[in-house]
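haha ok so turns out i had the wrong file open the whole time. this is the CORRECT one, sorry everyone. sequence first:
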Amino acid sequence: MRLTAFGLAAAATVAFTALAPATAAAAASLPGTVSSGKTRLAVRSAPTPGSAAVGSLRNGAKLALVCSVQGPKTKGRVRTTDRWDRLISGAYVSDAYVSRRKAPPACPAPVVTPTPAPAVTPTPVPPVIVPPTGAVAVGLWVAPVPGKGTSGFRTVSRPTHDGIDIMAARETPIHATADGTVITVVCNTSGPSCDVDGSPSIKGCGWYVEIHHAGDVTTRYCHMVRRPDVVVGQQVTAGQRIGSVGTSGNSSGPHLHFEVHFGRPATRLNAIDPVAFMRTAGAPVA
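then structure:
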């Protein structure tokens, strides 16, 4: 095997280190001799034949053996063994090619510093909101738009969906579901305007209206196509047109997002299932 300048230097270093006298490591080492015939014995960085070679020693070279460790089995000129000898340099040679009078002791088990477990940040659990009970429909109630709800109230896939979505064509009239007072007319969007179509990447309800009804019930109508047809403080009657279906705000297509709340102002804490309420009101939406 032809050695590079690095290999020769490394081999010389290994041999020199192995024979160095008067050190604490040398005092605790055992003598050994390379027995590899015409093949030079590879000195490796770890006790495996596949680890990096850090040098080599010719047949008859003297070694200072510190200890041995278990590794891949090797059949050599001296013995067949799974022991690899650590030299005082910290490198390893296969014990299958080492002649010595006494076996070196086993190397001490390496000290493994346990890696601290990464801190686990608990996933925040959204609070469980129990819808209030006791809401009663007073007077005549009608469905806000023709059609049936397609996306339900706080489903498993959409636990923060506080209403229902009713698919309807753009410009479909939206009706007040019962007599009441308009308390909110707002453009709610993270986009540039509610007068343009929204998208799923935009936040907000778009153009929306809230109406407060008898019995302390509040209804909300979202994603209108343009500014609603009513103003805050206006009295409306059941079935009166308050706006038109659109897709402003957080919306993927024309539809009405419809919510029912027991109380005012309308919040997540007082939202109730529109399907159940509208069924008891005699104006089913599902």
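The chain has three helices and 17 strands.
again sry for the mixup
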